[in-house]
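Task card 7
Instruction: Convert sequence to C-alpha cells.
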Amino acid sequence: MKAERLENGLIRLSGPIWKDEFLEERLKPWIA
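Output:
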C-alpha cells in the first residue's frame, strides 16, 4: 500500500515535468 502510494505520487510529480519538457521540445523550433 505504501509503495503504491509513493508510486502514484511520483507519477503525479513527474507527469507535469514530463509534459513541460515535451512542450518545450515541441516549441523550440518555433521559438528558435
